[in-house]
Amino acid sequence: xxxxxxxxxxxxxxxxxxxxxxxxxxxxxxxxxxxxxxxxxxxxxxxxxxxxxxxxxxxxxxxxxxxxxxxxxxxxxxxxx
Length: 81
Prior knowledge:
single chain, mainly alpha, 4 helices, elongated
């Protein structure tokens, strides 16, 4: 069990660093209340956001955060204690 916990810990650290890095490179949200007041409606670019680089970064963020949560739960199981 010691080798498995060490491997999961190393993977957890790598995923944590990746989450911090990918969150820092993301653009800020321009929507919300300010976007609705200033008329930030749906455009061609916002509708096809998933195909752009920004959409791919958002998907990567989602998957990395899910991996972070799963690894944190696994590392806190009593089996590894």
